[in-house]
Model the fold of this input.
Amino acid sequence: MSRKRDLAAEILRAVADEQLQHSLNSLGERLNMLRAAAFPDRQEYEALRREARRIKEETIAHLDKYLAQLRAQVEAQGGKVFLAQDGTEAAAYITQLASARGVSAPIVKAKSMTAEEIELNRALIAQGLQVLEVDLGERIIQLAGEKPAHIIGPAFHKSKEEVRRLFARWLEIPEGDIPQGISAITALARSALRQKFLQAEMGITGVNFAVAETGTIVLVENEGDIRMTTRLPPLHVALMGLEKVIPTLDDLRVFLELLPRSGTGQKLTSYVSLLTGPRRSSSGERPEPEREFHLVLLDNGRSRMRADPALREALYCIRCGACMNTCAPYLGVGGHVYGGQTYMSGIGNAWEAGVHGLEEAAGFNELCTTCGRCTEVCPVKIDIPWLNTVIRQRAGSLTGRARWQRWLIGRVDLSGRWGSYTAPLSNWLVRAKPLRLLLEKVLALDRRRRLPAFRRPTLEQRFRRHRPARSDGPLQGTKVALLPDCFTNYYQPEIGLAAIELLERLGCSVELAPRRCCGRGLLSQGLIEEVKPLARRSMETLERLAGQGYELVGVEPSCLAALRGEYAHIIGSKRAARLRPHLWEILEYLQHCHLPPELFAGPEQQLVYHGHCQQKAIGANRAAISLLANIPGVKLKVVEVPCCGMAGSFGYKRDFYQLSMQLGRRLTKKLEKLEGQIVLCGSSCRAQVEELSGRSVRHPLELLLERLKSKELSGPGGHDEEPVARDKL
Done:
């Protein structure tokens, strides 16, 4: 049953919880650093991801075939297989099995999110059975009476002091007798659990992978509790979601390369167990007497997810947790807020929709900023932002925001057109307290957030008067069409003009593409149908320009992410793929052109750079860093945090304002320790950092232009040619 939530209140409590904030910040920094170090070879990583994706697509497409093969192999090895349509059936089978076998000692249960999904512990306890979680994190959570806060680190949010108090209650000893050191506390828990393993008559585990070819289940861990759970009790029950099956042992190799490195940065976990049927005698000829293995296959909505064109992709998930570790909202509030009954974070939204229903998913869907960082690190390349956009569309009225409200927030092109046309009056109005109160009441836009100023003339209007600078630069003969996104056009036209002049001075013939709103703002509100006509018009324009030999260059990463990402879902992947080789973020394009770094050589300059989320998601951030870092005279310092916290309209919304500011402060605290000019590509990033740091923030292309102009003026005969007029495209 779905719970009624006050998400805004939950967010405020989480942001104010100092222990939680410390734990979240440490978790993100540590695991992201370890993950990055575990994949030093980018090409190898991408090849593994492609192969993992191929295997999952093949398996889910022919799921019935592989499940039948798995069942046949498990039964041939002496195991038993039960297919449960839902959690009630699965729990009933396991409890009846325990009753039939006369289980009286506590059941030892290893970590399993699938068991959490069906609330297996509650069902067992209701039948008078005792259940002991033997994973250390899960044991802490069980003692605290909570649900896991992370898919691989369920108790990461607990302080050492909290754990000591919980252990004192568990072991019935004074808190003062619980050791202070973490290693000593762990050793104490291990000692207490060891006797339980020896007494146990039943062990329950999850399944990381199940190999159809051999009937083998695969379990990965770092503590050794799973191995004891499967080998010591005479009865082993493995609970497995249908999606965990893979075709062959050779396929397993790919996932064992990806899972531990994506989750914890390890090349391999401490223990990898491959179990085929019941434990056998030392001779290996037959199972030992009175030993049993039961594999419970759980559907619980998975067949519906498989039949759903959007949710189907969620079944590719291998539960590594990498997406959570890089998700800024998750790292701001944790899984108890950014989560549902069982699953958390962006991928958890799709799983909640699939197994617990759309209403449960709608309760926390809006925490997803659809930035794309999760897809960038997902080992199976799941398009999590698109899953959440579809859920946002389907949830509709369940989110508490009417369709017309979301439409008004998403149509940044219309508000920009009106605001620019009436500026400066419009800027006075949007700063006035009565209108800010009205916007907060009607559109839930927080009155404390500084709104950007409308500009007049717009980039389009300025371009009509623009005269190109002649140049014999290295890109002579190259035709470029600059894409005038709504924000650059209406709010920061000087950035667009800087891009045009920079490209012209490098030798490009530059035109301004006819402005077509890409629909990014509407997509962030889940209004997919409203985006379709915008996408069709945009594609027609871009295809015509590409056909005329233009390279298509933009300065706003979020809009390019829509063109290079979401459009594949809207206008078709094949059509989008044909245009993809011509679409560039401006720094990515300059790096692609292999310009001599000496072009921008100049005096020493310290630059402090933070990559825009969607710039990272589309793969343009590495190119930007490489371009800037190789310029003679530039000393580049890259600051890594998951997000500045603004994330487009997300940071303007009343419910998320405090979370946005909390995430922004994490970034500005790092910036405070560094001297130099801050450079950021995304418009929302620049606004957030300027507001919180009080320092000047510039787009890198502005500095590139300044250095190029300075180089030209200082060089032999360096001067600007007389500009010539030209017609607009």
Q: What stands out?
A: The chain has 36 helices and 18 strands.
